[in-house]
Design a protein that fits this description.
Layout (H helix, E strand, L loop, with lengths): L1 H10 L8 H8 L2 H12 L14 E5 L3 E5 L5 E2 L14 H13 L6 H8 L3 H34 L7 H9 L1 H4 L7
Antiparallel strand pairs: 1-2, 2-3
The structure holds zinc ion (ZN).
The site of zinc ion (ZN) has 8 residues, from loops.
C-alpha cells in the first residue's frame, strides 16, 4: 500500500509556479480530481489489482467504482492511497497538495485550516499524512540515486532487484567473478 501511495503522489504534482486560477481550472471539481487520479493509477487503462483482469463495468456510489468482470472485485481510484478512509473531498486533498508544493516554507496547519476551510484537527491530519507520503517519496528518490550509482559502478547494466541488493554487499561477486565465492 505504501508503494502505491508513494507512486501516486509522485505523479500528482503540480507544475511549479502554477497559478491558483489554473489549478482550480484543472482540479476544481471532484470529477476532475478523480479523473486525474484514475489516469495516474492506470495510465494503460484500468486493470484489476486482484486478478489483473482488464474487463470491467462502472457503477457509482458517490464515487466511481470499477467492478472487475472476471473476479467481481470492486475498486475506486482512491483505494490504497493516502486519500482512502477519509471523508474529505478529493478537491480538499488536491488543494492541500498544491499549497504544500507551491510553498517554499512549510505550510502551517493553521494556514491550511484557513485556506482549506476545514477544522484545525483535519488540517493537521491532512498535513501529517501528506508530509509522511512526501517523505517516503524523498527516501525513494535518494534510494534510486544510490541504485543508479551502483549500476554505474557495475558498468551501467540494468540489473534485477536481487543483483542490486547483492551488489551493495559484494560487488565483486556480482561482476561475475566466480572465483571470489
Ligand atoms: Zn479481477
Amino acid at each position: 500500500m505504501l508503494g502505491s501511495q508513494r507512486e501516486l503522489l509522485n505523479k500528482i504534482q503540480f507544475q511549479a509556479g502554477m497559478s491558483l486560477h489554473e489549478f482550480l481550472r484543472q482540479y476544481g471539481t471532484e470529477e476532475q480530481c478523480e479523473a486525474a487520479l484514475s489516469v495516474s493509477r492506470w495510465p494503460q487503462g484500468w486493470n484489476c489489482s486482484r486478478c489483473d483482469g482488464k474487463r470491467y463495468c462502472c457503477t457509482h456510489n458517490g464515487r466511481r467504482l470499477w467492478e472487475c468482470l472476471d473476479c467481481g472485485y470492486q475498486s475506486s481510484s482512491i483505494v490504497g492511497t493516502v486519500f482512502e478512509n477519509t471523508k474529505l473531498p478529493l478537491t480538499i486533498w488536491f488543494l492541500a497538495i498544491y499549497l504544500m508544493a507551491q510553498s517554499k516554507n512549510a505550510v502551517s496547519a493553521l494556514e491550511l485550516k484557513r485556506q482549506l476551510g476545514v477544522s484545525y484537527k483535519t488540517a493537521r491530519l491532512v498535513k501529517h499524512k501528506l508530509l509522511q507520503t512526501m517523505l517516503l517519496r524523498e527516501e525513494q528518490r535518494r534510494l534510486d540515486g544510490r541504485v543508479e550509482i551502483d549500476d554505474a559502478y557495475l558498468g551501467g547494466e540494468k540489473r534485477g532487484k536481487r543483483g542490486r541488493g547483492a551488489a551493495s554487499k559484494a560487488p565483486s561477486a556480482i561482476c561475475g567473478s566466480d572465483t571470489n565465492k
